C-alpha cells in the first residue's frame, strides 16, 4: 500500500480497520524489513499466531524482502516509507500523529532505528513493547552516551523491553539503568525440525570441487566484520583445499568482493546473495564461521547448531553460551589469527567436527526450539493489551 509520511495523508489500511474489535491489532515498526534476524523471528511468530492477531508492519527504509517469509493468511499488511533520519523531533511529532490515527492495541518497536516511535509514545497513546536485538558498528565497542540517556528517558516508564540475550539484559540493567521489572528476557528460538531436513544435493554439489566448505550466513554490514573472515580463510587455504561460501547480501558486498579479489581468492569465495530458506544451504557446509564485532543472540548460530554444524566464531554477545560446551574452545577473540586457528583446527579433525555437530544439534533441540519463544511472545502481546 505504501503510506505517505505526511500525517495528513495517512489512511488506515482496510484489514486493520476491519479487524478493530475482532483481532488484536499490533503495529510493528522496523528500521527496515529486509532479511535480518529480527524480521525472520517476527515472521515465524506472526505465522504461528495466525489471524487472531492483525499485524501492521511499517518499514522505515522502504525495504520489504522479508515479506516472502510471511504466510498469506490475511493477518498482516506492510507499509513502506522513506523516513528522513536527520529530523528526530519532527519525526517524533509525525509518528505520534500516526499513532493517534491508527490507534493500535500495541506498538512494537525494533532496535535503535525505530526509537523515535518509542519516543512518540512517551506520553502513552497505546501499550508499547521495544525489542532490542543488538547494535550497529558505531556501538560495537562501547555505548554512545547520548543513546544511553535517550533509551533511559524513553524506555523506563511505560515500555516493556524485550531482550533475547543475557548480554543485552546486563546492558539494559547496568548501563541503561532500566527498571528490571520492565525487562523481559526471551531467547530466540527456531524450528529445529526444519533444519533436520535433507540437504539440497544440487546446492552441495555446486560448492564442492575444492575440498571442505566453510560457510556463513549474515547481512553484509560493517559490524559483521566479514573482511576478517575472508582474511582468516586466506590463511586457512594455505593449509587446506577449501571453499568459503558467504550467504546474504547488504551494503558491504562490493567491498568484500574486492577484499577477496585482492587476496587472489576470487574463485574460492562464493557470494550467494540472500537466501530465504537457509536450511537448504547449511547442509552443504562442513564448518560454520562467524567473524562479527558485535552480536547478541544471532539466529544464524542457532540455525547452524540445528543443522548439526561445528562453529568457529569470534566471542561476541552470547555466542559462547549458545554453543555446546564442547564447541566453546573455538569461540575466540576478535582477531584474524585467532579465527584462522579455530577454523584450521576444526577443518583438520573430522572426528572432532562430528562430535561438535552432534552436541550442537542436541543443544539446539533441547534449549532453543521455537515453541518456547512463541508462547512467550503471545503472552507479551496479550499482557500489553
Descriptive report:
The protein has helices spanning 14-19, 37-49, 88-102, 115-120, 145-155, 166-174, 201-207, 226-237, 253-262, 279-282, 299-306, 319-322, 336-348, 350-367, 370-383, and strands at residues 24-30, 53-59, 76-80, 106-110, 127-131, 159-163, 183-185, 212-217, 242-247, 269-273, 287-290, 311-314, 331-332. With 385 residues, it is α/β, with parallel strands linked by helices. It contains 15 helices and 13 strands.
Notable features of this structure?
single chain; 385 residues; alpha/beta; 7-stranded parallel sheet; 6-stranded parallel sheet; 17% strand
Q: Into which percent range does the helicity of residues fall?
A: 25-40%
What can be said about the biggest beta sheet? 7 strands, parallel
Quaternary structure of the protein: single chain
How much of the sequence is in beta strands?
A: 15-25%
Order of helices and strands: HEHEEHEHEHEHEHEHEHEHEHEHEHHH
Report the end-to-end length measured between terminal Cα atoms.
26 Å
* Derived structural class: alpha/beta
Mean pLDDT: 89
Q: What is the general shape?
A: globular
Strand order of the largest sheet: 3-2-1-4-5-6-7
Can you tell me the residue ranges where pLDDT is under 50 for at least 5 consecutive residues? none
Number of beta-strand segments: 13
The number of helical elements comes to 15
Amino acid at each position: 500500500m505504501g503510506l505517505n509520511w505526511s500525517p495528513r495523508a495517512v489512511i488506515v489500511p482496510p484489514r486493520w480497520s476491519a479487524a478493530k474489535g475482532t483481532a488484536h491489532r499490533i503495529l510493528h515498526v522496523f528500521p527496515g524489513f529486509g532479511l535480518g534476524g529480527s524480521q525472520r523471528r517476527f515472521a515465524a511468530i506472526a505465522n504461528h499466531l495466525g489471524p487472531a492477531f492483525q499485524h501492521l508492519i511499517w518499514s522505515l527504509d522502504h525495504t520489504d524482502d522479508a515479506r516472502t517469509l510471511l504466510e498469506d493468511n490475511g493477518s498482516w499488511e506492510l507499509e513502506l516509507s522513506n523516513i528522513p533520519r536527520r529530523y528526530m523531533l519532527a519525526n517524533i511529532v509525525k509518528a505520534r500523529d500516526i499513532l493517534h490515527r491508527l490507534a493500535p492495541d500495541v506498538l512494537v518497536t525494533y532496535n535503535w532505528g525505530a526509537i523515535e516511535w518509542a519516543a512518540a509514545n512517551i506520553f502513552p497513546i497505546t501499550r508499547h513493547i521495544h525489542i532490542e536485538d543488538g547494535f550497529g558498528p558505531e556501538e560495537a565497542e562501547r555505548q554512545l552516551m547520548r543513546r544511553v540517556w535517550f533509551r533511559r528517558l524513553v524506555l523506563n516508564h511505560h515500555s516493556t523491553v524485550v531482550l533475547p540475550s543475557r548480554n543485552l539484559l546486563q546492558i539494559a540493567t547496568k548501563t541503561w539503568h532500566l527498571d528490571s521489572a520492565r525487562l523481559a528476557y526471551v531467547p530466540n528460538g527456531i524450528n529445529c525440525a526444519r533444519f533436520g531436513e535433507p540437504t539440497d544435493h544440487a546446492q552441495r554439489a555446486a560448492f564442492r570441487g575444492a575440498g571442505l566448505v566453510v560457510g556463513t550466513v549474515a547481512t553484509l554490514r560493517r559490524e559483521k566484520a566479514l573482511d576478517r573472515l575472508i582474511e582468516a580463510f586466506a590463511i586457512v587455504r594455505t593449509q587446506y583445499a577449501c571453499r568459503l561460501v558467504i550467504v546474504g547480501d547488504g551494503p558491504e558486498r562490493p567491498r568484500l568482493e574486492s577484499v577477496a579479489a585482492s587476496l587472489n581468492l576470487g574463485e574460492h569465495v562464493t557470494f550467494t546473495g540472500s537466501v530465504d530458506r537457509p536450511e537448504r544451504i547449511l547442509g552443504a557446509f562442513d564448518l560454520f564461521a562467524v567473524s562479527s564485532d558485535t552480536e547478541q543472540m544471532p539466529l544464524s548460530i542457532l540455525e547452524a547448531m540445528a543443522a548439526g554444524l561445528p562453529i568457529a566464531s569470534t566471542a561476541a554477545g552470547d555466542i559462547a553460551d549458545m554453543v555446546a560446551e564442547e564447541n566453546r574452545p573455538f569461540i575466540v577473540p576478535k582477531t584474524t589469527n585467532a579465527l584462522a586457528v579455530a577454523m584450521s583446527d576444526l577443518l583438520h579433525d573430522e572426528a572432532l567436527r562430528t562430535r561438535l555437530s552432534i552436541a550442537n544439534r542436541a543443544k539446539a533441540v533441547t534449549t532453543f526450539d521455537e515453541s518456547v519463544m512463541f508462547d512467550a511472545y503471545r503472552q507479551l502481546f496479550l499482557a500489553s493489551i
